[in-house]
Design goal:
The chain is an all-beta fold and 551 residues long. The chain contains no helices and 43 strands.
Amino acid sequence: MMTKSILGAGALLLASLSQGALAGPTATFDYMEYSAIDEREAASPKMFRNPVIPGFHPDPSIVRVGDDFYAVTSTFSWFPGLPILHSTDLVNWRLIGNAIDRPGQVDFSGLGVNRGLFAPAITHHDGRFWIVNTCIECGDNFVITADDPAGPWSDPTWLNFGGIDPSLYFAEDGTAWITYNDAPPGEPRYEGHRAIWIQQFDMDSMQVMDERTLLVDGGVDPSTNPIWAEGPHIYRVDGWYYLLTAEGGTADQHSQTIYRSRELTGPYVPGPFNPILTQRDLPPDRPDRVEATGHADIVKLDDGSWWGVFLATRPFAGQSTLLGRETFLLPLEWREGWPRFLDTGEAVPMELARPDLPRGEGDEFTRWREDFREPLSGKWIGLRTPPMQQQVVVDTDGGALYLIPGSDAAGSRGKPAFTGRRLRHHSADIVTRVDFAPDRPGQFAGLLAFMDESHFLAFGKEQGRMVARLRTGPDQADSGEIVAQQALGNSGPVDIRIALRGGRATLAWRAAGESDWKPLAEPINVEPLASVHAGLFTGLVVGPYAYAPEG
């Protein structure tokens, strides 16, 4: 018997498997390496560079508990989901767990990768952590709790109201309230016409009460037909209730807006300066261009300063990025009782002074190597809820990852044999070694760079050849269309490298033990994989993948 780890619950469940359980065209991966140029290194120890959480980490929500900060971001139908990140300085962040980390909590079966968990909001009250969230096409709104933010988190309690983007606020009088985005009263006047509502939440029954109150109809200026008022959060500051919301949709027109009221349930009045954060009116040729800023959450420090996290993108051209929406950090300035991130026409600074907090330690993003000597951490994610049968097996004794390929290709809505990690840099090299002996055409093992079911690049070994498959639309084959190939005389293990440079991917391979890389072909245009072409929500995830079609 051989003790192995099976990808299942964020930090992998243990099981004992016989060697015979790995029968069939099993793919064996010896290691995976990631190396990139550090785009976040600041010029001075007193400075930091944005984004503070690079790569696919959208819709950040943050809570302060004493000297600690905790953040959570959206993951859609990736599993494990809802990463919990910890920081002591707001700049350096470390993954400590995933709130959705076991199959029984939420079922993502059959969902597209742009469905699932949208816009979680985290808070803390009376020693307990709370997350409210929406699971699109998988149960709608729910609440989960934990005594320790690292987990375990409870199973979801499903809430009986519609809409999206719920956020929980605990009032001074002991009541609790949920604000959220839903349809406006009556018929929507135009596409994207939404409203912000508030509803009291009973902490004993874990349900909302029947009556709800309208806070915002449309947005800051209804005469302009504002779209997608969403992501609301409420804060109590100096006798005022402040309502922070996003507006404009999560692309280049995204923005952040502010309202306030003397009463929790309104009426709320928009601030004299809105939006308080946007990049939509800036010239496209500006240096270090940041786009799509919005969906913010804010915290106050002991020195009286306020800081906020928000999502934004760093396009390499136009609105195109493979990194998806990332988490940025900026201070807020208060003027005459109103907060703002940036003045009109002001660009998001990529480098600025650090918060006045002791420097913390964060995860290493720029260079790492996985030798599969330990169970995979929660940084490794897969598509949809894990199946009962094993697909991804880690042999911690032998230092190998086994993929047991099935008939679900990357372009399907099944459960492909795939596990990966988020791309964090525009320029990065990803290398692995795979040993795979396909016994019929179409069987594949190698690396998959995945944006969504219709947008991915797969590079690896098939029967008698090295092959690159690209999918850029739903009308193409689920396994992708062949864009480059080379005959393969060696039947043993091979090293595979994908070198990403913005919108170009250079693919190379070599027999294990050789020093010289063999280019597969000319660089491949992977700009069509950018999130702007793939629903906007996700970012590229890269890792080992195997596929064996039926027949």
